[in-house]
Design a protein that fits this description.
single chain; about 250 residues; 2 domains; 5 strands; elongated
């Protein structure tokens, strides 16, 4: 029998002891595994409770060197996105939708990496996800970092429809509303044939078209004020961080 004189590998020896112990007491291993799962579930619930409870607006003391820099966004960039697509950027306590497990898992992983308990969360989502119970699309879960910077933790849901930005373009601001009404009036005027505005495109026919344009512009402006604001009520640039209904 040959004896290894190089010493004992304690790591291998410990692994051997573990196998022997688990073979003798399989129930102990199962109980330990269940305990780990229970602790993990409890941590998930704590994170969800903090998200829906809402935290302070103070920045989280995160180590920026451990963050993915391409997931850090400025408040101005978030405002631009919300204005373009008519979204809201609010504290997580106002959120009425569901938080998927993937989002909780990423928060948990971030906490382990940062060795800190994250307390404050913000969300970007369409207004119905904050004010109503019916579900909409595409929330973004963010964490405030200070200096008007936010870290994107997770995005879930289906993509916003590509036409959404076009459909809400008139209500980005008062300027875009006037531009949209003027464009619509000019487009309608351009549809009329030459014969309806006194012959070919001479100076006289252009005068008629200009008069018709201003007539339609005023008419469309009145309809927009009457029906448009009754539905949209305010501009995207004013609503993006409002916690009140449109």
């Amino acid at each position: 029998m040959r004896i290894d004189m190089n010493g004992v590998d304690l790591e291998k020896a410990l692994a051997t002891e573990k196998k022997r112990s688990e073979a003798k007491n399989p129930d102990t291993l199962l109980a330990a595994f269940k305990e780990i799962l229970a602790q993990d579930d409890a941590l998930d619930k704590q994170i969800l409770d903090r998200i829906f409870a809402g935290g302070s607006e103070e920045a989280q003391a995160l180590d920026l060197k451990k963050l993915a820099h391409d997931r850090i966004y400025s408040l101005e960039q978030i405002k631009s996105l919300c204005t373009r697509y008519r979204l809201r950027f609010l504290d997580s306590k106002y959120f009425k939708g569901e938080i998927p497990y993937e989002a909780v898992s990423k928060v948990k992983a971030l906490q382990r990496k940062q060795e800190i308990e994250i307390q404050s969360f913000k969300l970007v989502a369409p207004a119905p996800m904050f004010n109503l119970e019916n579900k909409d699309k595409d929330p973004l879960l963010l964490i405030p970092l200070g200096n008007e910077r936010y870290y994107l933790v997770h995005k879930w849901g289906n993509d916003l429809h590509p036409l959404r930005a076009l459909l809400v373009f008139p209500f980005r601001s008062f300027k875009t509303l006037l531009f949209s009404v003027a464009f619509l009036a000019a487009f309608v005027v351009s549809l009329f044939p030459d014969s309806m505005v006194m012959g070919p495109y001479d100076q006289h026919s252009w005068n008629i078209r200009v008069i018709f344009f201003f007539y339609l512009f005023l008419a469309f402006s009145g309809l927009t004020a009457l029906y448009g604001f009754s539905r949209m009520k305010n501009f995207n640039s004013e609503l993006w961080n409002s916690k009140y209904l449109d």
